[in-house]
Amino acid sequence: MKTLKNEIKIGGVGLHSGEESTLWMRPCGAAGIYFRNNRGLSPVTEAVVEEDSRLTGFSLPNGAVVRTAEHLLAAIAGMGLEAVELELTGNEVPILDGSAFPFAEAIRDCGFEEIDGKRKKRAIAAPLFLEENDGGRLLAAAPAEKLTVTYIIDYSGTPIGTQKVKYDITSETFYNIISKARTFGLTSELDYLKQNGLAKGGTLDNALVFDEKGLVGGQRLRFPLECVTHKVIDLLGDLTLAGEIPTAHYVAVAAGHSIHGKLTRRIKTLFP
What's the predicted TM-score (pTM) here? Predict the structure, then answer.
């Protein structure tokens, strides 16, 4: 079972709070992802999730409140880190460049240490299917021999348009491609975010922003399907709240944090 060789420290601003925070990632002797505070450790599998399509937030039995953790959690899962202890000052994980890459890079550079124990591999045995908005949002998980994600987004009438990707999730693919995709949004959404006290720390350095013509402020995509690939990060991060992500082919159509959360809760009932 893989844990970190050493402690990792990462600091930065929270996307929604706009406040500085520091994250520590430490070696751990037990399988899973744990958050530590002055009241002890709590596993993310005991998280009580806030229902909000704009961010993933959750509270833990030790009283910790954590927001915008999906990029960090996706990096932990995507890089194959099986045991880790996390500690956070403030409530929000630093947004950094808006992708999962800084976390993935820090994990790779730190390296792994093998510890005793083996996580029991889990797999979806029968298809699962969820929908929202009268079928406008779909999410399914089907039995498969390897962990695969197909994701489709539809931003018709905007420069983002309709995009589709399919990835077999390996540490190499996650590190080299998936992790580098940044969060994105439309200028038309900015008023909503501001009115709801969100995106206070958002800048063109940590999010892709599109107006009716294209990317604003001279921004450039890292690769053509960066937007839809970022949704793969969000899905992987949300699924980690159920523990180790079960092997399956996950298919998402115009999905988001809300329906990701519903599938996560369904998985938790299958693997208590």
Answer: 0.95
List 3's β-bridge partners, or say none.
83, 113
Contact 231, 252 (CB under 8 A): yes
Task: For residue 230, indicate whether it is catalytic.
Answer: no
What letter does residue 188 receive in the DSSP assignment? G
Please state which CATH class domain 2-120 belongs to: alpha beta
Tokens of 103: 């976390």
Cα 234 to Cα 30: distance, rounded to the nearest angstrom: 25
Phi, psi (rounded to 5 degrees) for 269: -70, -25
Ordered by start, the domain boundaries in the chain are 2-120
Q: How long is the chain?
A: 272
Residue that is written with structure tokens 């540490």 in the block: 171
Active-site annotation holder among 16, 230, 249, 257 = 257
**52/260 Cα distance (integer angstroms):** 11
10, containing H or E segment: strand 8-13
The string of pLDDT tens digits covering residues 209-267 is 999 999 999 999 999 999 999 999 999 999 999 999 999 999 999 999 999 999 999 99
Q: Alpha helices, DSSP H only, in the chain? A: 70-78, 101-110, 171-176, 190-195, 226-239, 257-270
